[in-house]
Amino acid sequence: MIELTTPEDRIGCCEKSLMEIDTAIRLIKSIVSGLEFSSVADEIYFFKEIKPFFIARFIYYSNLLSIEAAKPNAGQLYLKEYYRCELEALKDFYQQHIDFYGYYRRKAAFLDQKYFVRNQFDLKTKLESGLYNYDEKFATSHDHLIAQILANDLLEKYLLKSINETEGYVYEKLNDKSPLYWSSSKSGLVELLYALHQTRCFNGGNIEFSEVIRFTEKSLNVNLGNFYKTLHEIKSRKIKRTKFLQLLNDHLNQLFTDSDQ
Known about the structure:
Elements: H1 7-32, H2 40-69, H3 76-96, H4 98-105, H5 112-115, H6 143-166, H7 186-198, H8 209-220, H9 227-235, H10 243-260
Helix pairs in contact: 1-2, 2-6, 3-6, 7-9
């Protein structure tokens, strides 16, 4: 990937990247379109891993070019809101495809022959409306979704960095690790952070939850992974939905009770 430098360079970098990636994709397509894979496993690997890697980069730079070209010149506050709206679009995509996100993030494979083999899509599964516009020799029913997920991951990082830059600091990894690290469950930390976020404890509520997550990850040396999936699992609990918060409450009350004796 070409490194993006100053804002003035970004549009040119995106255009150059798109041309280079387009050349690579066209070459790959010319080879694969007439190719009979030696095994189903090889075909699945290509459409689940290799093709999405290239398409994701094309989607990423294409979206980045659109964002940069339409970026308003109206001050930092307006610019920050502009980036936030783009971030919301990523969340909308996640909500629309939450089941497939779970399948992909868990590295599941039981539906791979339906998802990543040409001409093997199942009408009983959720399919993209534009499926019949795809080149059946170079596409499966779900390889484009993986490419979009990978592109969104890249775009999310870029948007969070851009939002933070509008606030006067750069989103970068800390050079010196914090002496603190999170030693309890990751789901418990997500539960705690979400509760604080929803009660407007950070920036008066004027901050995205994903930003809270990223800052916490850096501060506490922890990787919270797909925190949206974790939130979904927390909300889906049948009993003790807020079990970590209840644990904190019980322990603190017990501590106060013991100190009174």
